[in-house]
Design goal:
The complex is a heterotrimer of chains A (about 260), B (about 575) and C (about 200).
Chain A (H helix, E strand, L loop, with lengths): L20 H17 L4 H17 L7 H5 L2 H14 L11 E5 L2 E4 H25 L4 H12 L3 H12 L1 H17 L6 H33 L18 H19 L3
Antiparallel strand pairs in A: 1-2
Helix pairs in contact in A: 1-5, 1-10, 2-5, 2-10, 4-5, 6-7, 8-9
Chain B lengths: L1 H5 L11 E10 L7 E8 L4 E5 L6 H8 L2 H4 L3 E9 L2 E2 L5 H5 L2 E4 L12 H11 L4 H14 L15 H14 L4 E5 L7 H17 L3 E5 L3 H4 L5 E5 L5 E6 L5 H9 L6 H6 L10 H7 L9 E15 L2 E14 L3 E5 L6 H8 L7 E6 L20 H7 E4 L12 H12 L12 H10 L15 H10 L8 E5 L7 H16 L3 E5 L11 E6 L2 E6 L1 H6 L7 H8 L18
Parallel strand pairs in B: 3-8, 3-9, 6-7, 7-8, 13-17, 13-18, 15-16, 16-17
Antiparallel strand pairs in B: 1-2, 1-4, 4-5, 9-10, 11-12, 11-14, 18-19
Chain C lengths: L9 H5 L3 H29 L4 H5 L7 H10 L4 H15 L6 H20 L7 H22 L6 H32 L11
Helix pairs in contact in C: 2-4, 2-5, 4-5, 4-6, 4-7, 4-8, 5-6, 6-7, 7-8
The chains are: A mainly alpha (about 260), B alpha/beta (about 575), C mainly alpha (about 200).
Bound molecules: adenosine-5'-triphosphate (ATP) (2 copies) and magnesium ion (2 copies).
One magnesium ion binds next to α2 of chain B.
């Protein structure tokens, strides 16, 4: 029934699965920033290589499932790259040599390189996200944010509880649609279709609110709002792997940015 | 106090007494109180069974005992409720929460974390248990609930019964003095239900907990109870008495309010004239106009798989073949997780089988050749709706209209008059007649989402009444319903079956089996039995079989003459 | 202990109940799922229409920034809702991933500023539209820096304008209508917005 992709969970123990999520967030942010700050394609290209190596050697993720998972990305990269090239401000600069001429559009070298940079940037962001979120589940992420960064635990675990329900909601969406179909509701024409989708969305949101109310009640019944300082069943501490990950990722980001070609 | 603030585990919480004095509660936005004028005193360490029809305020009382009412839920509180000497309305919810464990009606709504061990630990973390004690506490609680080895499982993939046992483990882990259980076995298979009642019996005997139990399986629950509290449909107290000495008058009032009443009580006092016989008996004695006829639905070699998770791909159904004929009612039984819901979904074309086929067709009319069997996923919505209907476990997901009245007429309006069937557009009278027959007449203009759980379930059935499909699939149709609701459901089903409708009921409720023509039993995704209810009850195809046999017997009066057991055809 | 008092004290206003936290988080999760589906199935195709047209589709990302505060009426709801929705779509494998956190932060902040200016007291359509515009400005700021840095100024102005218009229509008007529809189902009874 589920329309969501199965989670991409590590299939073997690896270096990154033993780092804490907070540390990976810091490390990943360094790459994100490095990928965003320049329009030089060489920077994201270097980060891309680094990300591939890290995924391959240290993430523990099932590598064969990654390409299928990222496939929809292809469209976005293609369109972002093409339009960034076509609409680049560098194309208006008469001092630059024309690399190609498509109808009225003149394309310059810097426009092409900026377009490539933007396309590669998206790939790097996607892979970095996998490296940050992939090696551990959301529970570890919440544990980590609460224990290491002192994020307010009611918000962190409230969100986590809501996340648990996410697969249900995707199921709900399918079930609601099926239920309406089984009741003979088959919208004809665009207006009816939009109304039907709206009705379906409304039922899903109502069911989400109901679930949230009952969940909150159950959490309060188990002392969630007690004001006592919570203890932790799964303890997380910043370890040497975290520091190594952070230092290495910053070094890679710096190298990608500043090492001359 | 100090314990509470430093949050050390309260290993030796003594069981509290409960004292209500003229207690009333009105939910914000409601004009009538949900409970009114409750006055009783339950001694420490005793077991209280709360009985009343749907909407009588049983769950509301449970919430009040845990302090959720009035501290979390908005509304108006009157009178007093003391738990272990603490006045609930004046004690912070967190202090109450440390003494009270609450298990809710619906397992899905009370699980918080994604993994089983985290889930049990959640309540202990909130109570600031030190880590080593949490680790052993989690292990013990899971063992007590029969879930050892489930530590790493994702809670999403548990079946309904497994979830409910997990919810009980959650509560036991914190070792509360007061245990409040709101229909804890509603979703359990007979062995699971047995395990829970056995567990409760041990807890009750030890007298280390005061226990408040809300339960529809009265024959199993009554022997555990020291005291009973009877509520009527307006939330008034009918009686508070020792379980063995409930006055005849109170029983009659309870009976009239539409609640389930233990047979032992009715047996002891011959029912007053007009008192309602159990719905099942009536269903069983009603004759049928036509015998099982044309084949309407056929599932052949169906295999259903769910996507892989950490513990591998789940095969929910493996080579299941079931056929259903016109005018036939089939009960679908099996342990939690056997694949009953999955089979219903596949039959309705909502789950595409990985292997095998599902075919169905409309009810052939007199003198016409039957149409060919067709794949449900190839039918248009209108064709499908005329052929098959599914009542989901969660009725809310199926609502399509803004008022109860429109909800009932929606299907008929959508299919009405098309594809050659003899449908009329529904008139308001017909619609309101349907609502009234389900006891929903006064709610015609209400918004479906605002109805109580039992009312929603009845509405979801009423919605299929005007344009009945040829095959009706029902997932736990009587779950959470009181006697009156169950009767309404069975009366409707009887009427439809007489008209040739085929019905498939997935159920854990043994009271329904004698009212069915056939039982199909599933186990781990395979059909292990397909035959008459009598044959099923004589030799349940499960090992050990005794919980199934005795589990069914729990629906009968204790020690009664087996010949008196309601059976189809036995008059 | 009573139903919602007509006016709430500020201490009470700032204290989120568990139900407020979970409802905002869950709605955000629902939106996160929608984001993921939108990003995967709609946006990816829409992006072939070019940045300006595609920018008209971006309003959907901003729904939590307005819908969540309109329902629970608590300070921080816009920011919290957008962040959770972003985290969820990142967890589901939206290819923008980490970057959605950044844009979520900016969008939430843009709407939050508007609600802050009203002191969390006004919840009418005008405020909803202003908050939507605020969120749209946050979104445009992010996109012009991260996604379209190379495009000429006229192009970028058009993109920014398209995003803000989209925000106002989809989120300001659409979001307000959505909350009204939810209230009519009786689902918001436990919140100040449903009383
Ligand atoms: N959160 C709520 N807000 C408003 N009304 C409510 C709420 N919860 C319950 N009610 C109403 O209060 C009354 C008592 O409900 P309650 O859930 O306590 O009944 P119950 O005896 O547990 O019924 P059932 O057997 O169906 O579970 C019903 O009329 C119900 O509609
Ligand atoms: N969405 C899902 N994803 C993964 N596994 C699932 C899903 N739904 C059900 N299952 C698994 O499939 C099996 C059959 O489940 P199903 O819900 O059909 O059982 P059931 O007989 O209806 O159980 P119950 O009596 O507890 O309702 C179980 O092992 C269950 O854990
Ligand atoms: Mg109840
Ligand atoms: Mg089931």
């Amino acid at each position: 029934m589920s329309v969501l992709p199965a989670p991409l969970a590590p299939t073997r123990p690896a270096f990154l699965t033993r780092t804490t999520p907070a540390a990976r967030l810091v490390a990943g942010t360094a790459w994100l920033v490095a990928a965003i700050v320049t329009l030089d394609p060489i920077v994201p290209a270097r980060l891309f290589l680094a990300a591939i190596v890290a995924l391959w050697l240290w993430s523990g993720l099932p590598l064969r499932r990654i390409p299928a998972r990222l496939a929809p990305l292809g469209f976005a990269i293609l369109s972002l790259t093409v339009f960034s090239i076509l609409l680049s401000s560098a194309n208006g600069d008469r001092s630059l040599a024309t690399m190609a001429q498509i109808g009225p559009a003149r394309i310059t070298g810097p426009a092409i390189s900026a377009g490539l940079a933007i396309g590669l940037r998206v790939v790097v962001i996607a892979l970095t996200t996998l490296l940050v979120f992939g090696p551990s589940d959301p529970t570890r992420m919440a544990d980590s944010l609460v224990q290491q960064w002192h994020v307010p635990d009611r918000f962190a675990y409230g969100t986590l509880a809501a996340l648990r329900v996410a697969p249900f909601m995707a199921g709900d969406w399918a079930t609601i649609g099926a239920a309406r179909r089984l009741r003979g509701l088959a919208p004809r024409g665009p207006v009816a279709r939009v109304r039907e989708a709206g009705g379906r969305l409304l039922v899903m949101l109502v069911s989400a609110i109901r679930r949230a109310e009952r969940l909150a009640l159950a959490m309060d019944a188990r002392g969630f709002d007690s004001g006592v300082r919570r203890t932790h069943f799964r303890e997380l501490r910043t370890n040497w792997r975290d520091w190594l990950t952070i230092v290495l990722s910053f070094a890679v980001a710096a190298a990608a940015l500043f090492v001359a070609r | 106090m100090t314990e509470a603030t430093t949050g050390r585990p309260l290993t030796a919480v003594s069981p509290p007494s409960i004292e209500a004095t003229d207690l009333s509660w009105t939910y914000a936005g409601r004009s009538r109180p949900a409970i009114e004028g409750l006055t009783f005193r339950l001694e420490a360490g005793r077991v209280l069974l709360v009985l009343g029809p749907s909407g009588s305020g049983k769950s509301t009382l449970a919430r009040a005992l845990a302090g959720l009412v009035p501290h979390v839920v908005p509304g108006r509180w009157q009178g007093g409720l003391r738990v272990g000497g603490l006045e609930v309305a004046e004690t912070p919810a967190r202090l109450l929460g440390e003494r009270i464990g609450l298990v809710f009606q619906d397992p899905d709504s009370q699980l918080v974390m994604s993994r089983v061990d985290d889930e049990v630990a959640f309540g202990l973390e909130n109570r600031a248990w030190p880590r080593p004690e949490m680790v052993s506490g989690v292990r013990e609680a899971l063992a007590q609930a029969g879930l050892s080895g489930f530590e790493q499982r994702s809670t999403v993939t548990l079946s309904g019964g497994e979830k409910q046992r997990l919810a009980i483990a959650d509560v036991l882990a914190a070792r509360p003095g007061l245990l409040v259980l709101d229909e804890p076995t509603a979703n359990l298979d007979p062995p699971g239900m047995y395990a829970v009642f056995e567990r409760l019996a041990i807890l009750a005997r030890r007298r280390e907990h005061t226990i408040v139990l809300i339960e529809h399986r009265l024959e199993a629950a009554l022997p555990l109870a020291d005291e009973v509290l009877l509520l009527d449909d307006e939330g008034h107290q009918l009686a508070f008495a020792p379980a063995g000495a409930v006055g005849r008058e109170a029983v009659e009032l309870l009976e009239r309010s539409g609640a389930w009443v233990p047979r032992a009580w009715r047996g002891a006092q011959p029912a007053a004239s007009g008192a309602v016989e159990p719905a099942v008996e009536r269903a069983a004695s009603g004759g049928r106009a036509i015998e099982a006829g044309a084949l309407l639905l056929e599932a052949a070699d169906v295999r259903v798989e769910y996507p892989a998770d950490e513990s591998g791909k789940r095969v929910a159904l493996d080579g299941v073949s079931v056929s259903v004929r016109a005018g036939e009612r089939v009960a679908l039984v099996g342990p939690n997780g056997a694949g009953k819901s999955s089979l219903l979904f596949a039959m309705a074309g909502l789950l595409r089988p990985a292997d095998g086929t599902v075919r169905l067709r409309a009810l052939p009319r007199d003198g016409e050749a039957a149409e060919p069997m067709r794949d449900p996923s190839r039918l248009s919505a209108r064709e499908l709706a005329a052929r098959i209907g599914l009542v989901f476990q969660d009725p809310e997901l199926g609502f399509v209209a803004g008022t109860a009245r429109d909800e009932v007429s929606a299907s008929a309006r959508a299919i009405g008059g098309r594809d050659g069937t003899s449908a009329r557009a529904p008139d308001e009278q017909g619609t309101d007649g349907v609502l009234a027959s389900f006891g929903l007449g006064h709610l015609a203009t209400e918004i479906p989402f605002r109805l109580s759980q039992g009312e929603q379930r009845r509405l979801s059935l009423a919605a299929l009444a005007l344009r009945p499909p040829a095959v009706l699939l029902l997932d736990e149709p009587t779950f959470g319903l009181d006697r009156r609701g169950t009767e309404a459901v069975l009366a409707l089903l009887d009427e439809r079956r007489t008209a040739g409708q085929a019905q498939v009921l997935a159920t854990h409720d043994p009271r329904l089996l004698p009212a069915c023509d056939r039982v199909v039993a599933l186990d781990r995704g395979r059909v292990v039995f397909d035959g008459s209810p009598d044959a099923f009850l004589a030799a349940p195809p499960y090992a050990p079989a005794s919980p199934w046999r005795d589990g069914v017997a729990l629906g009968r009066p204790a020690g009664s003459d087996p010949a008196a057991i309601p059976r189809r055809g036995a008059r | 202990m009573n139903a919602f008092p007509a006016s709430r004290h500020s201490a009470e206003l700032f204290r989120w109940r568990t139900v407020d936290i979970v409802v905002v988080a869950l709605l955000a999760v629902a939106f996160g799922v929608v984001f993921w589906a939108w990003g995967t199935y709609v946006w990816a195709w829409g992006s072939f229409l070019g940045p300006q047209t595609e920018s008209l589709l971006t309003g959907v990302w901003l729904l939590p920034a307005v819908v969540c505060p309109l329902i629970v009426r608590r300070p921080g709801a816009a920011l919290f809702g957008e962040l959770v929705a972003a985290v969820v779509s990142a967890l589901l494998g939206s290819y923008w991933g980490l970057d959605t956190l950044l844009s979520g932060l900016l969008q939430g902040a843009g709407a939050e500023v508007v609600f802050f200016v009203t002191m969390y007291r006004a919840w009418n359509p005008a405020v909803a539209i202003l908050a939507a515009a605020g969120a749209g400005i946050g979104e445009a700021t992010h996109d012009l820096i991260v996604s379209y840095p190379g495009i000429d100024y006229a192009g970028r102005a058009a993109i920014g304008a398209a995003e803000i218009v989209s925000a106002i229509v989809v989120v300001g008007i659409g979001g307000w209508l959505l909350v009204r529809a939810l209230r009519q189902t009786g689902a918001l009874q436990t919140f100040p917005s449903g009383a």
